[in-house]
């Protein structure tokens, strides 16, 4: 474990995780991302003590933690106390996605809530946004984060531009489609990073603008050969509450569904409409992409087992904490929908 003495300018993170193997894996990853792990707590009470003494910039906290004698406290209790007394952002980690945990977690006001097993991209996104939301308390940290975000944004732009250039240069149709797919995924991640790196938008209020901007970017940049003047895009993106960890899979879901519609639904040049809807549904959110085009041939479930794009849709839906719902029929269009927790 690093103590940060040789790199004092790096953001300092306290890790609260009682599973030693998981703790080591997370510590190795976030250290490699340029953060200092200043302590590892094995109980929720120890996490509060270490947060009080070390004053880290962020706490990564497992919800289910063993109790100390005479101290009944789990990660949610510790999160609430750290937020209330120390004003340090906390990202909660848990293997439990039941509604009772979600309700309790919301009352503790975490910066993000990640379901285990967490992908590295989700941890990275949650940490970046949690730190970005608190930079007004530390101007020096704010400068460092803005500098890092600028470098990442430039890297995404360069990669997206290179893919677009390659797409224009190759003649093989399958290669063009593959490059277009890759470009759409890069654009989705770039727009997610843009939203997460803007403290003015915030991870919880930026989902609507994020979906709107990404959908229009995909429509303009991933149109069929010859343009998409025969198509219309309708976007209805409401201000859904969405945490940082769900922005990337949300973007991937949208990119895959829209790419499918742009590539296959209107191949005969027929006019049509692609609709994108993001709306709240109680404590859940619904993301829906539909078209009135040709529809998918055959059985959707069978297609899902053999199509990489549909496999990506299933994977993104699972990362969001939901499940993919497909409705399609030849000549009647397609609809891809996912309903997932909004926290």
Please provide a written account of the structure:
Mean pLDDT is 77; it is low at 1-8 and 200-205. The chain is built from eleven helices and ten strands. The chain has two domains: 12-118, Response regulator (Rossmann fold), CATH 3.40.50.2300; 140-341, Histidine kinase-like ATPase, C-terminal domain (Heat Shock Protein 90, 2-Layer Sandwich). It starts with 11 loop residues before the first strand and ends with a strand. It is 49% helix and 18% strand.
- Strand line-up of the largest beta sheet: 2-1-3-4-5
Predict the CATH topology of the largest domain.
Answer: Heat Shock Protein 90
Number of helices: 11
The parts where pLDDT drops under 50 for at least 5 residues are: 1-8, 200-205
Summarize the structure.
With 343 residues, the chain is of the alpha/beta class. The protein has eleven helices and ten strands.
What's the SSE blueprint?
Layout: E1 12-16, H1 20-32, E2 36-41, H2 44-54, E3 58-62, H3 75-86, E4 90-94, H4 99-107, E5 112-115, H5 120-132, H6 139-169, H7 173-196, H8 207-221, E6 231-237, H9 244-265, E7 272-281, E8 284-291, H10 300-306, H11 308-319, E9 324-328, E10 334-341
Helix pairs in contact: 2-3, 5-9, 6-7, 7-8, 7-9, 8-9, 9-11, 10-11
Quick tags:
11 helices, five-stranded parallel sheet, 343 residues, 49% helix, 18% strand, five-stranded mixed sheet, 2 domains
